[in-house]
Specification:
The chain is elongated. The strands form two sheets. A three-stranded mixed beta sheet has the order 1-4-5, with helices on one face. Strands 2-3 form a two-stranded antiparallel ribbon. Among the domains are: 63 residues, no CATH class; 68 residues, Butyryl-CoA Dehydrogenase, subunit A, domain 2 (Beta Barrel). Helices cover 33% and strands 15% of the residues. The protein has five helices and five strands; from the N terminus they run H-H-H-H-H-E-E-E-E-E. It is α+β, with helices and mostly antiparallel strands and 189 residues long.
Length: 189
């Protein structure tokens, strides 16, 4: 196991960036380089596009990106919420299917939590998911779903136990936004 120090991390990041950053690179090509090298999300596990770097040393890497003017992987937004959820709670199949495409930005994600009538009170969710055969069938409506009309995938919160208390019986799903039955419409005010 590597013993990380600030000097070591700075030197490694600087060397890699100086040898790989090109402002003329296509964004997709650059993000693939970041995924392959682990420098895009260096605190992630090395098995999943990271470098096992302690989170306290990540700001040093970010300083090196800023110093040379290199574009980092965006660390906020629903994509990264999806990534963190899958990284920490997903199966190996989920990780293989989704993580790289999240890191490279190939897939657009949206959040499907808020509902008409309950807003951001997640415990008030009325969207239902019922197991039919070996598949979940979802019925309900979500609002404030930024980029849902462009999204490939969504993180969906749905009620799976109708007899549970308000704060229980909710489940978290990855939903294919392009499948039949999923409809998106602009919110008109």
């Amino acid at each position: 196991m590597t013993e990380y120090t600030e000097d070591y991390v700075r030197k490694e990041a600087r060397t890699w960036l100086e040898n790989n950053w090109d402002p003329n690179l296509d964004l997709f090509e650059w993000r693939n380089k970041l995924a392959d090298s682990g420098w895009g999300l260096p605190n992630w596990p090395s098995d999943w596009y990271g470098r096992d770097l302690p989170v306290g040393l990540v700001p040093i890497v970010e300083e090196e990106f800023q110093r040379i003017g290199a574009l980092p992987i965006p660390k906020s937004g629903i994509r990264m919420l999806a990534a963190a959820t899958i990284l920490n709670h997903g199966t190996e199949m989920h990780k293989e299917k989704f993580l790289r495409r999240i890191v490279t930005g190939e897939d657009v994600w949206c959040q499907l939590f808020s509902e008409p009538g309950s807003g951001s009170d997640l415990a008030g969710a009325t969207t239902k998911a019922v197991m039919v055969g070996n598949k979940w069938v979802v019925n309900g409506q979500k609002v404030w779903t930024t980029s849902a009309h462009k999204a490939h995938w969504g993180l969906l919160l749905a009620r799976t136990d109708m007899d549970a208390t308000k704060h229980d019986g909710l489940s978290y799903f990855i939903i294919d936004m392009k499948q039949p039955g999923v409809e998106t419409q602009p919110l008109k005010q």
